Amino acid sequence: MNFDYSEKIIDLQERLTSFFDTHILPVEREVNEFLYHPDNLWKPWPGMESLKQKAKEEGLWNLFLPKAYGDLSPGLSNLEYAPLAEIMGRILWSSEIFNCSAPDTGNMEVLAKYGSKDQQKQWLAPLLNGDVRSAFLMTEPQVASSDATNIETSIVSDGNDYVINGRKWWSSGGMNPNCKIAIVMGKTDPQAPRHQQQSMVLVPMNSPGLKIIRPLSVFGFYDSPEGHAEILLENVRVPKENLILGEGRGFEIAQGRLGPGRIHHCMRLIGMAQRSLELMSKRASERIAFGKTFKDYSSIRQEIAKSQCDIEQARLLTLSAADKMDKFGNKLSKDLIAMIKVVAPKMALKVIDRAMQIHGGKGVGPDTPLAHFFVAARMLRLADGPDEVHMYQLGKSIIKKYAE
Amino acid sequence: MNFDYSEKIIDLQERLTSFFDTHILPVEREVNEFLYHPDNLWKPWPGMESLKQKAKEEGLWNLFLPKAYGDLSPGLSNLEYAPLAEIMGRILWSSEIFNCSAPDTGNMEVLAKYGSKDQQKQWLAPLLNGDVRSAFLMTEPQVASSDATNIETSIVSDGNDYVINGRKWWSSGGMNPNCKIAIVMGKTDPQAPRHQQQSMVLVPMNSPGLKIIRPLSVFGFYDSPEGHAEILLENVRVPKENLILGEGRGFEIAQGRLGPGRIHHCMRLIGMAQRSLELMSKRASERIAFGKTFKDYSSIRQEIAKSQCDIEQARLLTLSAADKMDKFGNKLSKDLIAMIKVVAPKMALKVIDRAMQIHGGKGVGPDTPLAHFFVAARMLRLADGPDEVHMYQLGKSIIKKYAE
Amino acid sequence: MNFDYSEKIIDLQERLTSFFDTHILPVEREVNEFLYHPDNLWKPWPGMESLKQKAKEEGLWNLFLPKAYGDLSPGLSNLEYAPLAEIMGRILWSSEIFNCSAPDTGNMEVLAKYGSKDQQKQWLAPLLNGDVRSAFLMTEPQVASSDATNIETSIVSDGNDYVINGRKWWSSGGMNPNCKIAIVMGKTDPQAPRHQQQSMVLVPMNSPGLKIIRPLSVFGFYDSPEGHAEILLENVRVPKENLILGEGRGFEIAQGRLGPGRIHHCMRLIGMAQRSLELMSKRASERIAFGKTFKDYSSIRQEIAKSQCDIEQARLLTLSAADKMDKFGNKLSKDLIAMIKVVAPKMALKVIDRAMQIHGGKGVGPDTPLAHFFVAARMLRLADGPDEVHMYQLGKSIIKKYAE
Amino acid sequence: MNFDYSEKIIDLQERLTSFFDTHILPVEREVNEFLYHPDNLWKPWPGMESLKQKAKEEGLWNLFLPKAYGDLSPGLSNLEYAPLAEIMGRILWSSEIFNCSAPDTGNMEVLAKYGSKDQQKQWLAPLLNGDVRSAFLMTEPQVASSDATNIETSIVSDGNDYVINGRKWWSSGGMNPNCKIAIVMGKTDPQAPRHQQQSMVLVPMNSPGLKIIRPLSVFGFYDSPEGHAEILLENVRVPKENLILGEGRGFEIAQGRLGPGRIHHCMRLIGMAQRSLELMSKRASERIAFGKTFKDYSSIRQEIAKSQCDIEQARLLTLSAADKMDKFGNKLSKDLIAMIKVVAPKMALKVIDRAMQIHGGKGVGPDTPLAHFFVAARMLRLADGPDEVHMYQLGKSIIKKYAE
To answer: How does this polypeptide assemble, per the annotation (chains A, B, C, D) (predicted)?
Structure first.
């Protein structure tokens, strides 16, 4: 492993940090007040588009995309993107400014990697340009969807069309008025071998029969304007050209989609934890109780010391996973990717929780990013597969490795 | 310790459980949908008053109150009330139905114990009758309020009045349109000995100069219709008759107020945890992944086994604290009360978190009580003093006990 | 539950405590130095017999035995014995003084409950009198013995004899020169239904063919003079009269044997933890580093506060299990017994570990009981079934209870 | 950070691993049986010297030493040595074979860095050659020695001599019959500024007045033949030439000594944890209970998955600390060194404990390295400063960094 950053990356880190300090941090409070206000549900913050424009102009755009697309992306490796994703993790709504927010990133990667020319023209181009947003419809309420073979949504061939029926939820981004396209995972052939039953199709959000049932809150947050939608698909009809890659290849696409996404999630979690550590350090140096500043209590120093240890370890592990993915690909890195997926959310939860506690009532309220960080991190112990599923596979793989 | 319940309590438990099963559980989903809907902020659920009436008629009213008030309360001991509070903990908004919800319970106790005849007539009577709600204004944003000597709100004598200035927050219940009266903690004499500077006064919510700045969200929840208010007090003027007990006795009242309240909080937390355990047991027996029902995974059985161990221990500890309070009073029970205040929220968080994880996405969303339970429990690691403060005192007391 | 102690028990607690203070604590250091000295392996401490005599004279003898045997035991219930076992837990080698040490207690119960008149006369009488010691040969090195159906030792009928072949280990007490009799678990009929294959037979330690292979150390301790023996049984022959209860009833006896034994173990663990808490409190009040006495560090107070919470909860849980066993028997108490078996050793390990840490180097060395406590507690996460087995059964039982 | 190993290191790793497989693992059981046998206390295993000779011949000698000494050491950086120390960690007594065992390594570094020509000739040369062993006399029973200013041993100038009085304990290596020299920390000037009171002197073990009081056991282990000695120094007289570096510079030497030693300790801990993981993986694939192989229990897979995550994170953190020390020196790396000192022992304890549990009774006995690993790791939460001291400094440093 070589984690030394190249000059290009150091430059990008500096420019991204400077963009943050200049354009984002100063409006953080204003944006939060807008987004959290019940009257503004599903309305994007009005200043977002101009910030996106600025980021695009400064070349801080589509940083997540491993392949260069003209001026639209610098084509960074996973290891190169990692420290940039960490910076974006410091404010939950900031990734969009750089067109680097989930689930668009994963969807763009899928289209870039597996999409047909037409699909790329119609959907990848506007996504890469930040003109539209997208959703990914995978999880279903009735079944344990972490076992992808449980998925029940049907995709049935009918002439030149596919007809889709099913119920999806936790479709993040689906409430956004600017969300125009969804990638839907379903079964084209329930009789095929377990991992060849699934397919993915592109479904425009305005398709007849696609009905948004309700937004789901996560803890009490709606995550406006993206939201998490419950969606009913009733005889939704799309042309066969909307199939991605081929029938029965949905599982394969899902696998390919997940690796980089997990690196992104984990690095953002590390950014959240890092910022939480900084916030609690500041708080500890200011607040006084029982005649002593917080920082002089040994227990508070311990919380902070442990947090630093936890963060730095998770950071190194994630970087090493990114490095391995760059060098050996998703498949050979699967154990490491499982490891960071298990480690990073739990680590972040611990650190954020300590920071909340040191902030007292303020820590669970709207005046710090901590409570929302916590909820975002908690969700990531479930999203893209619950910890238990990753450990089940990882444990098996390690036992095999050492028992032989 | 004798935890055997008398026939009277067994009867009350059965009647309360039956009331729950008949009148509350069937409307749980409907009430939640109402309360969580952004359009209904600060509106009480319309069916609440008729449920309160029914509870009153059935003698399930003011159960928390250790002293009998005519027909209005059965006068239970802490140990007798504990199992009833556990039942109420199973649904967050259910305590109000029995006129047993914080902060009214604490406020009513203060008025019953320390209030003047006039204060009791004017404020205790309608509170006991469930006609109005109340708030308790203690915590301040600028200072670590767990150290009560930090409190900055001033209560200045001016002729026949007190003039109050300060900023309070986390004033739970303060957003409720039916909240009519607040007990405010402030300093009447900042030069007096540390624990005689504080006083408590009754301040009607419609007093000129009392301004609700905003509702605070806890994680994303607003806890409508009660809410948690940030309140500005600018030259708020109340007659001297509104002083409770006497100048400089605020700290003493606060101490007396806390013991029973902590028992109530802890027993409700145990109810939350118990219900979470039941929910995850059900889920484990239904859900299937990778060819096995959840309940056949040894790791899931462990989560459930541990939860049962955690709950039962915290329950016994809380009962033993209630028993000791009944027999020896607040002061001699202070170590045990500190112990349950540290133990119960953490225990509940662990159990609820396991239940969420087993529920997958559903566990963090609005369709189970788990996410809201979690937030309520998390807040209780801070409310009424953060864990750290309790452990600081408790540790000192134990060292003293054993080192001598 | 009613945990109030009767006057009889309060009197026994006081007399036992006084015996401890007068006769045991003053020689603790001397005894430890004797027992830990490599030259004294397998030699009982010379003063032991006179202490036993004294305890017997004072009626502090066979306290564990639920049934009264003439003058030899007061016939206490589990709940009554529990606080006495806690006191004995404060010094590892003290139980023997009161003829209350494992595995003799379990063996005596088996003989009292299931033994024939002859077996009782020959073996129970001298055990109750403290004249001899005994061993229990259950666990086998080749198989996971927590699943009793795995056990491989064969007990084959041959004329008027049984012929026994097998290898046992962790036979606690087996190294003691005064150990004269063993109860051996083996299979009389490997073809019978799973839980009727096993039988228990009495095997004198001097039987030809019974060979002590070696003492096993636990961490580095040999636990002299009792020790933990690895024992080979090669064609060991005993008369059929040595069978206990009947062929195929070994599993049934094992079940009956375990309940009270677990209460004893757990209460002793609580005694270990309690003493560790007292020791660390003393240490915290004496030791100084970086200009502050340990007790003034908030982190040390937290360790102590948490320990008190942990101990008191486990104590109440164990008492409630003892109470339930007394009232409803082993079978209906099995969930609670599993719970304490999982809870108490882990709790003790946490508390002892904190105490070790606060003692610095002294804490892991021979000058405090802490290191040996730790090892004893660690072993109890395995002995009588590892935590995992208890949680596996307990989790199943709870899911069943709540999912129906 | 660049953790890619050079060809030289890859070659050394391979040769060291091969030496292990060929010469060490095959005799592991034999050596353990020898060392653990009470009759062999303080006797080196007879085969040790020939293995040392072999290692020296193969250039696997003094690998820890950052500076090349003729043929006697390859002069590796900390980052280069780290993976080799990890390999040595797999068997507790193996470091000596490569002349890489504590406290000799630290003592040799002190002499190499700060020793006079004469001191180096007389003591460094035989140590580097593996002819003699050494001890480091720092900790004292009466005071919290982690605060070096507490140390009470006096070093008083008297003509051409220093006269030393004090009591030391946990002098590891001090019981070894081949231990010939000790470095003693004491105070030459108790009136000097806090960190200039201390000095270090060389004291031959056969000096009149130096009396070994007793060996200390760690848990039950004596760690023969090195042992941990309690030593009384009564008017021990050494010539002034035995002073290292200068009066009042003891603290400075101690600081310089600690950094690399902590890397070594941590990498060995990682080796212990790694081997424990491998052992439990093997066990999980072999053992059967309740009809299932251990590896098919989800809870066991989780234990193994978590262990892999824990180990890999600690490994990366330690490598990054080694790398930083190599590039920026001890002082600028102090936070990272504190971090690994806190992280690695706790991580190892968790992993080893899981491995023990999966091994059942075997895991706490003498037939696996696990119990001894555990004790070694537990001691390292105290040796070279307890966790609490490191976190106290680390927390302070981080708060300062982020609060400014």
So the answer is: Homodimer.
